[in-house]
């Protein structure tokens, strides 16, 4: 067969008894490869270092060296993809060439980014104010239920401290420090509408961008409400493409990221015995070793694996003339303390509809060239239950830390408990809990969580309707009408219960309250842009009118007939025995006129001036109106002719400077005048002939000189871009002074009545801010990283009273006041005694004397705290208290990074707080017989045993635990706020099932926290004067979740 087929194109094979003849297959021709080299440069001939060169359809590729050169081995007909961040990607055909010279063109889009500013948009290249921007792509890969928490660590100059880890809890947002004593919250503008009552109604996934106006020049256009900065929130609109349906969902589990170290049963018994022995008494526990670990009350209170669930669907799209966006979302968030008992949970329903439509757009017309209309409408409903947080007086966590580990959760003898306390609290099976009898308000935390909790509800409608007409070329008029309606309330009841001698009630009661607020806003704007050769002018002239009012009503009744029907009308009390209240509020009105003029020459020299005049009903006629001006300038150095031959890596450099004034009018109505209260009656006449004379009295003294609080700020900044925008660096220095802070005036107590409001304080904040961003792309690998840092120094210049100081927060027992405001100091600061170790021997006690030889601490014993006589008056007393710490961090930093490769993506956000302190009053050793922190195991027990923690004793004669630096701890921390890993199924696969995108991800929140602080959470914000005060904070949970995003 071989000989027969030798001259043919056939061959054969033998299969069993058969011979199979087939045609020979032609060998595939060998592909010849060639070596190719090249240089990649810019328009100016500068080599591009690190440009990506990839052979299409293969994994073969390389990057250019320091000379912009590369070399590859490729087929003669290969196609190369050449890319570099900041330049347009090119595809180059080899066409058998062995040498290439490739010139990449700049991609101006990175440098021409448009951001939202007050009443408009502006190219970032001509912005002369201090504005930080966070875009939707930055927000999409961060899991958070509130937008204020999303921003944490993302921008410089903004300190965001979450108030607690309770579901729905907000954050304290401070832009460039604490601006005033009363209210330092920024102004929130959502789609052009000022929002009152918080922004928890917003669904973060509906947000397109967030701009933070930090200096006076950027915020002055909002005048009287912008003293603490402005946050502009813009929600999404549909793309001008075919309709898109998107569904997102996530499921997660929450757990406390740490527990506090407290004594176990054995350790507690030993230390309680030691207290007795140190005080000359007999020990309480004969065999401490028998108690073992005892009860872990934190485990009994924490709700492990608490669920958090979120669903969202949105429908969007558009055409050349219109765009629309419709979304619905649902969130369920269960708390890690009491959530399983329906005591700490949060539900939010939201819906949003945004649209805009071009009625006509005719460039050929001279007049009425175009007309656009649009709406932004949202509704949210929030249902929540909350527990007390950050209080040592009987809150679940506060009590859990103080409960004896030797005490059982449930009563040992239920019958005896019911006999003595018929209203003892029971679980759902009727088993009574152990009753704690403490004069300090400590109760059984598990029993407390079994009491019915209040139900809070909130409904919010926000709408903004607008129309814009181009009257003449570049002359536009825009008119808008917005409304903000809020409805919220509270319902609750309690049955007779007994938790302890100071926590009980013998009568059932039920209560309900309802409140509502309504705000409307009308604004009219004219804008005109004029270009004369290289000179560009823009003008804005506007008017604004706003009115708001609120009112509420509530009632309470007693003796509920049926616990399953806790309603006010289902009680045994007659209507005249029920309580009722109301809170009508006068209308608050604000009228404004404002204008802005901008000029730039070839984006080289830029000037912008703003003036706003506001009138507020909160002030009297003579001081009702105020002016808020600003001026900012910019110089883009790289646009100068002498910079034409600049090094190519420097794309842009711009110097900025600004000055301006903002205002604050956050006080109640009628603060400038005396209000009158009636029903102040007096009995006149002789006995038997009494006459009741009705009377009235002023509730407060008037202050006709009451005026606006003003904030004046100077800012100097530098914006630089390198490698055509791939690398950017921004620096800002600011000096912000608040004058005439609106505060309650200090008057002698004998005058009586409420004290009036006055302009009696001054505050200053100075600082610097740094922002660094870098974008990198190689082949299918993308990498973005951003870092920011802020330093702020706060000083209270003048408090406005005769003493120049005021004390604030106090604690149980003998701690005394421990926060303070004082001229020349940061506001607020921790106030207490400085310590100098522990008296080791009686001789050291006797040697601690003043210049006259008198004992400075005559009641001290070995093992007691040595307090410093700071004022050198020869006496250790309350006048030796000084600044011992500050809860406001001077330094805050953020680091965020994300990367993508072949469908995989990874994103991280770090938040760093440096230099802040925590005043820990949650762990006390002077409230017997509470449990103690584990560090008390390192207490003083004899000479040399400890030089910080004093001896254990109920003898308080030396007052070892008065307010001092023993309570102050370093609260600095580094926290990995968010880590997300995702995978997007290849597009060619999802399109087979008629989908555009399918992405799955896993997410972790608060995965890592590095801190020296021993408490639940170093991030503590519990009020204006209590920043950094830990009374048993509800910790932020660690959350693990997984989710999916599907686009049809």
Description:
This protein has ten helices and 56 strands. The protein is mostly beta strands and 1048 residues long. The protein has a domain at 110-244: Ferric Hydroxamate Uptake Protein, Chain A, domain 1. Strand 36 and strand 37 (691-693) form a beta hairpin. It is 6% helix and 47% strand.
Task: Describe the structure using short key phrases.
10 helices; globular; five-stranded mixed beta sheet; 1048 residues; Ferric Hydroxamate Uptake Protein, Chain A, domain 1; mainly beta
Can you describe this structure in just a few lines?
The protein has 1048 residues and is mainly beta. Helices cover 6% and strands 47% of the residues.
Task: Give the SSE map.
Elements lengths: L9 E6 L2 E6 L10 E8 L10 E4 L5 E3 L5 E6 L4 E5 L6 E4 L5 E5 L10 E4 L2 E4 L7 E5 H4 L7 H4 L7 E5 L8 E5 L11 E4 L2 E3 L11 E7 L2 H4 L10 E6 L8 E13 L8 H14 L18 H5 L4 E13 L3 E13 L10 E17 L5 E19 L10 H7 L11 H7 L24 H5 L5 E18 L2 E20 L2 E4 L2 E3 L3 E24 L2 E24 L20 E4 L5 E14 L3 E12 L8 E12 L13 E15 L11 E2 L4 E3 L6 E3 L3 E2 L10 E14 L4 E18 L12 E22 L2 E18 L6 E3 L11 E4 L6 E4 L2 E4 L3 H6 L17 E3 L14 E4 L5 E11 L2 E11 L2 E4 L47 E3 L2 E12 L2 H4 L6 E15 L17 E2 L6 E11 L1
Parallel strand pairs: 3-9, 15-18, 51-55
Antiparallel strand pairs: 1-2, 3-6, 4-5, 4-7, 7-8, 10-11, 12-17, 13-14, 15-16, 17-18, 19-20, 19-56, 20-21, 21-22, 22-23, 23-24, 24-25, 25-28, 26-27, 28-29, 29-30, 29-31, 31-32, 32-33, 33-34, 34-39, 35-38, 36-37, 39-40, 40-41, 41-42, 42-49, 43-44, 44-45, 45-48, 46-47, 49-50, 50-53, 51-52, 53-54, ...
């Amino acid at each position: 067969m071989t000989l027969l087929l030798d001259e043919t194109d056939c061959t054969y094979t033998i299969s069993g008894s058969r011979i199979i003849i087939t045609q020979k297959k032609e060998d595939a021709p060998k592909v010849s490869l060639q070596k190719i080299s090249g240089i990649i440069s810019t328009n100016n001939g500068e080599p591009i270092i690190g440009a990506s060169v990839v052979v299409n359809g293969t994994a073969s590729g390389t990057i250019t060296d320091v000379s912009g050169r590369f070399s590859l081995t490729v087929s003669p007909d290969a196609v190369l993809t050449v890319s570099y961040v900041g330049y347009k990607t090119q595809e180059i055909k080899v066409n058998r060439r062995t040498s290439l010279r490739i010139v990449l063109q700049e991609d101006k889009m990175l440098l021409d980014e448009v951001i939202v500013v007050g009443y408009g948009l502006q190219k970032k290249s001509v912005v002369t104010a201090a504005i930080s921007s966070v875009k939707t792509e930055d927000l999409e890969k961060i899991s958070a239920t509130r937008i204020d928490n999303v921003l944490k660590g993302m921008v410089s100059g903004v300190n965001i401290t979450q108030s607690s880890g309770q579901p729905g809890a907000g954050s304290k947002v401070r832009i460039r420090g604490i601006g005033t004593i009363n209210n330092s919250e920024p102004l929130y503008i959502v789609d052009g509408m000022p929002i009152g009552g918080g922004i928890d109604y917003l669904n973060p996934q509906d947000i397109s961008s967030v701009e933070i106006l930090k200096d006076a020049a950027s915020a002055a256009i909002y005048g009287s409400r912008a003293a603490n900065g402005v946050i502009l929130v813009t929600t999404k609109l549909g793309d001008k493409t075919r309709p898109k349906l998107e569904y997102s969902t996530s499921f997660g589990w929450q757990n406390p990221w740490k527990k506090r170290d407290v004594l176990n049963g054995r350790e507690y018994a030993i230390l309680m015995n030691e207290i007795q022995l140190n005080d000359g008494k007999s020990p309480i526990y004969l065999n401490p070793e028998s108690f073992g670990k005892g009860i872990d009350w934190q485990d009994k209170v924490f709700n492990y694996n608490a669920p958090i669930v979120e669903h969202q669907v949105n429908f969007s799209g558009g055409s050349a003339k219109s765009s629309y966006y419709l979304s619905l979302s649902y969130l369920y968030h269960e708390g890690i303390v009491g959530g399983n008992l329906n005591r700490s949970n949060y539900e939010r329903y939201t819906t949003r509809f945004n649209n805009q439509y071009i009625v006509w757009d005719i460039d050929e017309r001279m007049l009425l060239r175009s007309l656009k209309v649009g709406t932004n409408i949202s509704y949210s409903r929030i249902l929540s239950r909350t527990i007390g947080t950050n209080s040592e007086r009987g809150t679940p966590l506060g009590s859990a830390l103080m409960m004896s580990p030797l005490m059982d959760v449930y009563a040992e003898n239920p019958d005896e408990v019911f006999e003595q306390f018929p209203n003892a609290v029971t679980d759902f099976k009727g088993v009574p809990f152990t009753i704690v009898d403490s004069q300090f308000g400590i109760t059984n935390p598990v029993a407390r969580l079994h009491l019915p909790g209040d139900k809070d509800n909130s409904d919010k409608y926000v709408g903004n309707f607008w129309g814009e007409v181009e009257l003449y070329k570049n002359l536009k008029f825009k008119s808008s009408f917005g409304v903000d309606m809020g409805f919220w309330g509270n319902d609750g009841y309690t049955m007779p219960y007994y938790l302890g001698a100071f926590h009980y009630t013998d009568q059932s009661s039920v209560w309900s309250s309802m409140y509502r607020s309504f705000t409307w806003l009308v604004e009219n704007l004219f804008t005109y842009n004029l270009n004369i050769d290289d000179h560009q002018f823009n003008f804005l002239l506007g008017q604004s009118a706003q009115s708001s009012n609120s009112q509420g009503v509530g009632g309470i009744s007693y003796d509920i007939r049926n616990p399953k029907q806790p309603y006010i009308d289902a009680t045994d009390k007659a209507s005249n025995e029920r309580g009722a209240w109301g809170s009508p509020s006068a209308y608050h009105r604000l009228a404004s006129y404002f204008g802005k003029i901008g000029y730039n020459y070839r984006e080289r020299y830029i000037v912008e001036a703003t003036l706003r005049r506001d009138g507020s009903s909160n002030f009297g006629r003579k001081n009702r109106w105020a002016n808020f001006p600003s001026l900012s300038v910019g110089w883009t150095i790289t646009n100068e002719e002498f910079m034409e031959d600049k090094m190519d890596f420097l794309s842009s450099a711009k110097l900025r400077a600004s000055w301006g004034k903002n205002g604050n009018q956050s006080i109640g109505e009628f603060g400038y005048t005396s209000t009158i209260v009636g029903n102040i009656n007096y009995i006149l006449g002789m006995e038997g002939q009494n006459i009741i004379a009705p009377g009235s009295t002023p509730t407060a003294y008037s202050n006709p000189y009451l005026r606006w609080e003003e904030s004046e700020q100077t800012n100097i900044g530098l914006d630089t871009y390198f490698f055509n925008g791939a690398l950017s660096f921004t620096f800002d220095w600011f000096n912000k002074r608040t004058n005439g802070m609106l505060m309650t005036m200090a008057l002698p107590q004998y005058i009586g009545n409420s004290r009036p409001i006055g302009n009696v304080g001054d505050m200053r904040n100075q600082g610097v801010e740094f922002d660094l961003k870098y974008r990198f792309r190689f082949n299918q690998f993308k990498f973005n990283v951003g870092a920011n840092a802020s330093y702020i120094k706060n000083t209270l210049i003048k408090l406005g009273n005769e003493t120049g100081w005021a004390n604030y927060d106090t604690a149980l027992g003998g701690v005394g006041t421990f926060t303070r405001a004082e001229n020349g100091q940061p506001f607020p600061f921790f106030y207490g005694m400085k310590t100098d170790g522990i008296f080791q021997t009686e001789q050291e006690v006797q040697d601690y004397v003043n210049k006259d030889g008198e004992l400075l601490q005559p009641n001290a014993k070995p093992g007691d705290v040595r307090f410093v006589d700071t004022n050198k008056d020869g006496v250790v007393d309350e006048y030796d208290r000084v600044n011992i710490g500050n809860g406001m961090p001077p330094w805050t930093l953020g680091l965020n990074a994300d990367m993508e490769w072949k469908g995989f993506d990874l994103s991280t956000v770090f938040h760093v707080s440096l230099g802040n302190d925590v005043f820990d009053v949650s762990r006390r050793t002077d409230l017997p017989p509470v449990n103690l922190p584990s560090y008390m195991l390192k207490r003083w027990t004899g000479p040399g045993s400890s030089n910080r923690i004093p001896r254990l004793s109920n003898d308080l004669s030396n007052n070892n635990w008065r307010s001092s630096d023993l309570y102050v701890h370093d609260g600095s921390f580094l926290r990995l706020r968010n880590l997300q890993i995702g995978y997007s199924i290849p597009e060619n696969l999802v399109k087979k099932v008629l989908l555009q995108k399918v992405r799955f991800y896993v997410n972790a929140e608060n995965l890592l926290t590095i801190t020296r602080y021993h408490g639940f959470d170093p991030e503590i914000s519990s009020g204006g004067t209590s920043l950094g005060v830990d009374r048993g904070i509800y910790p932020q949970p660690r959350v693990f979740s997984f989710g999916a995003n599907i686009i049809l």
